[in-house]
Design brief:
Layout (H helix, E strand, L loop, with lengths): L5 H9 L3 H11 L16 H8 L2
């Protein structure tokens, strides 16, 4: 375990590209594995489902 300085961590974060984020999101956010929980009263279920494209 290497201890990094604040500047080193900031440089690593700054080096992240939009393509990096898209690649990781595509791996983690698989639509066939998504789950959703809604807590509380839900009014207008039809509108909610249309918004979620269900």
């Amino acid at each position: 375990g290497q201890i990094r300085t604040v500047d080193e961590v900031a440089s690593i974060i700054d080096a992240i590209t939009p393509q990096d984020l898209r690649r990781v999101a595509a791996q983690l956010l698989l639509t066939e594995k998504l789950n959703l929980a809604i807590v509380g009263p839900v009014n207008g279920e039809d509108r909610l489902f249309r918004s979620l494209r269900l």
